[in-house]
Amino acid sequence: MSVRHYQLVRSLAAVAMVTGSTLYATAQQPPTPTRVRGTIEAVDGDVLAVKSRGGEDVRLRMTGDINVVGITKISLSDVKVGSFIGTTTVPGPNGSQNAAEVHVFPEAMRGTGEGSRAYDLRPNSTMTNATVAESVVGNDGHTLMIKYRGGEKKVVVSPETPVVTYVPAGKSDLKPGAKVIAFMKKLPDGTLETNRVSVGRDGLTPPM
User: Fold this and answer.
1) Helix (H, G, I), strand (E, B) or coil at 145
2) Rounded distance, CA 114 to CA 123, Å?
3) Phi, psi at residue 165, to the nearest 5°?
4) Pairing relation of β-strands 84-91 and 97-104?
5) Which listed site, 78, 84, 123, 145, has its alpha carbon 20 to 30 Å from 105?
6) Is the distance from CB of 74 to CB of 163 less than 8 angstroms?
């Protein structure tokens, strides 16, 4: 395994975790991981200044072991039967789910976070990580049948739905103007910390 491949697998494993271990043992209630989606405004040492999509100014202290992964656009045709994907969906007609985005995992990350859970991208949205069992091409896009342990879901992917995948990245990619999703924790002293950041490549806004 090459060094870059190892780094990508390591970064993805961290980014794909829904919750992390509690890093600070205090008598208080442990901090809850959340996400901030927005644009980097400045990087000052280990402090990342982000303007959130809602217009809030957020300052995040980057940990020394921060994991950074790149997000790049691919084609809907790159989603094949057998692909292991993640998708944010919202309820559609006839029991189907409309995809707000689709992200394809590299083969080394097959099975990561498998299952379906509530997600915070849109009201009533769900994140599902699953294997594409069937793909039907229609005039208005693809209908994917995706299966995971304990369930399955029919997902409608329109031609306008963003489709992305992961690529290697590093701290040097965190520059002013870059679009990011940063996983953050509020620490007992009120500061915010991040150890996982997804950054869009070539101006892309990560759609997750």
Assistant:
1) strand
2) 22
3) -145, 175
4) antiparallel
5) 123
6) yes
> Which residue type occupies 32?
T
Q: CATH number of the domain at 3-71+168-200, please?
A: 2.40.50.140
| Tokens coding 173 | 């990619």
Identify residue 186 by its one-letter amino acid code. Answer: K
C-alpha–C-alpha distance, residues 164 and 132, integer Å: 15
Give 153-208 pLDDT, tens digit per residue. Answer: 999 999 999 999 999 999 999 999 999 999 999 999 999 999 999 999 999 999 99
State the CB neighbour count (10 A cutoff) for residue 171.
Answer: 15
Nearest-angstrom CA–CA distance, 90 and 69: 26
164's tokens: 């992305």
Question: Are the C-beta atoms of 86 and 102 separated by less than 8 Å?
Answer: yes
What's the DSSP call for residue 176?
T
pLDDT greater than 80 at residue 9: no
Residue 141 has pLDDT above 90, yes or no: no
pLDDT for 2: 52
* The token pair that represents 88 in the structure block: 């944010």
Asked if residues 130 and 155 have their Cβ atoms less than 8 Å apart, the reply is no
Q: In which residue ranges of the chain is CATH 2.40.50.140 found? A: 3-71+168-200
pTM: 0.81
- In the chain, DSSP finds a helix count (H) and a strand count (E) of 1, 12
